[in-house]
From TrEMBL:
The keyword Isomerase does not apply. Belongs to the LysR transcriptional regulatory family. GO terms for molecular function: DNA binding; DNA-binding transcription factor activity. It comes from the Bacteria. Keywords: DNA-binding, Transcription, Transcription regulation. The lineage of its organism: Bacteria, Pseudomonadati, Pseudomonadota, Alphaproteobacteria, Rhodobacterales. PROSITE patterns: HTH_LYSR. InterPro entries: HTH-type_LysR_regulators, LysR_HTH_N, LysR_subst-bd, WH-like_DNA-bd_sf, WH_DNA-bd_sf. Gene3D superfamilies: 3.40.190.290, Winged helix-like DNA-binding domain superfamily/Winged helix DNA-binding domain. This is DNA-binding transcriptional regulator, LysR family. One of its GO terms (cellular component) is cytosol. SUPFAM superfamilies: Periplasmic binding protein-like II (SSF53850), Winged helix' DNA-binding domain (SSF46785). The keyword Transcription applies.
Length: 299
C-alpha cells in the first residue's frame, strides 16, 4: 500500500460527510471533477473500492469505513502529539472540539466558556450542535473530543465523565393562560405543546412515557431548536418539556414558570459529559473538561 496523499484523504472524508461529490467540491472550493479524480486515485492506491456510488450520492464501503476509522485515529494521534509538544514548552494552546446538545448551549457559555476563554485565550473551541444522536456519533467517531448530551443510552464506546439527574418539567408562560393548571400527564395530553423529535434525548424520553402510559401529547410543533420551543411558550401557545437548567435565565427573569410532572419517566433524565472510551485526550481538552464540570447541568 502506498503512502496516503492528504489531498486524496481530505476529498474522501469530505465526500463521505457531505454525501455527494458535488457537495464535497463546494465545501472544498474545487471542481467536482478534481474530487472524483482524487477519490479514484485513493482507491487505486488502496487497491480496494472505498465508496459506493449511486444516483443519490456516495457512501463508504466496508473498506471505506475502516479507512475512515484509521484516518480519525491518525488525526487524534497527531493532535495528541502536538499537545505533548506544547506541554514540553509549557504552552497551553490547541483546538478542542465539543459536540453539544441543543439544550446545553446557553449553560455552556454562561457557566464554562466565558471563564475558560479568559483563562486560556490561545485555545480554540470548535462547537458542533445537534441532537443526542449527533453528539454520540461525533464522540464515538472521534470527530469531537468531548460531548454534552441529555439521556445518553449506555454504549461501550462512551465514557461518562460526569452526570447529573435533571428531571423534565413542563414549562408555561408565567401568568399565562396555562399557568394555573394542574399539569399532570392526563391534563398535558389535552393541551397544545412543542417538543423535540425522538433523535433528541428529551424527545426519546417523551416518546417512552407516551408508550408506557398509553397517551399521546398534542404536539403542534416539533423541533430540536430550543429557541423555537421557548418562543412557543413565551407566546402563550402552550407548554414545552425541558430540564430546568435549559431555562434558568427565563425562570429567574419571571418569563416562564416550571411545573413538575407526576410521572416517574420524566424524573429519570440525566445530563452527561462524555468522551470516547479509551481515547487519550490532549492537554487542551483536559483543561476544557475541568471547566465543563462547573455547568449548571451538573450541579
Amino acid at each position: 500500500m502506498q503512502n496516503l496523499d492528504p489531498k486524496h484523504t481530505t476529498c474522501f472524508l469530505t465526500a463521505v460527510q457531505a454525501g455527494t461529490v458535488r457537495a464535497a467540491a463546494e465545501q472544498l472550493g474545487i471542481e467536482p471533477s478534481t474530487v472524483s479524480r482524487n477519490l479514484s486515485a485513493l482507491e487505486t492506491a488502496m487497491a480496494v473500492p472505498l465508496l459506493e456510488r449511486g444516483r443519490t450520492g456516495v457512501r463508504p464501503t466496508e473498506a471505506g469505513t475502516l479507512l475512515i476509522a484509521f484516518l480519525r485515529q491518525q488525526e487524534g494521534a497527531l493532535d495528541l502529539l502536538q499537545s505533548e509538544f506544547d506541554a514540553l514548552r509549557n504552552m497551553k494552546r490547541g483546538k478542542v472540539t465539543i459536540a453539544v446538545g441543543e439544550g446545553f448551549v446557553g449553560d455552556l457559555f454562561d457557566s464554562a466558556l466565558n471563564s475558560f476563554a479568559q483563562q486560556y485565550p490561545d485555545i480554540t473551541l470548535a462547537l458542533t450542535v445537534g441532537s443526542t444522536e449527533h453528539v454520540v456519533d461525533q464522540v464515538t467517531s472521534e470527530r469531537a473530543h468531548l460531548g454534552l448530551a441529555y439521556n445518553v443510552a449506555r454504549d461501550p464506546q462512551i465514557r461518562v465523565e460526569t452526570a447529573k439527574t435533571q428531571p423534565l418539567v413542563a414549562l408555561v408562560r408565567k401568568g399565562g393562560r396555562f399557568d394555573d393548571t394542574a399539569l399532570d400527564l392526563t391534563m398535558l395530553a389535552k393541551m397544545p405543546c412543542a417538543i423535540p423529535p425522538k433523535s433528541f434525548g428529551i424527545g426519546a424520553m417523551i416518546t417512552a412515557v407516551e408508550a408506557k402510559h398509553s397517551v399521546r401529547l398534542r404536539a403542534v410543533v416539533e423541533t430540536g431548536a430550543i429557541s423555537a420551543l421557548k418562543a412557543f411558550v413565551r407566546n402563550d401557545m402552550g407548554y414545552t418539556i425541558l430540564p430546568r437548567f435549559v431555562v434558568e435565565g427565563e425562570l429567574s427573569d419571571g418569563i416562564l414558570s416550571a411545573h413538575p410532572i407526576s410521572s416517574s419517566g420524566f424524573a429519570e433524565g440525566v445530563s452527561s459529559l462524555v468522551r470516547r472510551e479509551g481515547r487519550k485526550l490532549p492537554q487542551a481538552a483536559n483543561l476544557v473538561l475541568k471547566h465543563l464540570r462547573r455547568m449548571s447541568a451538573f450541579r
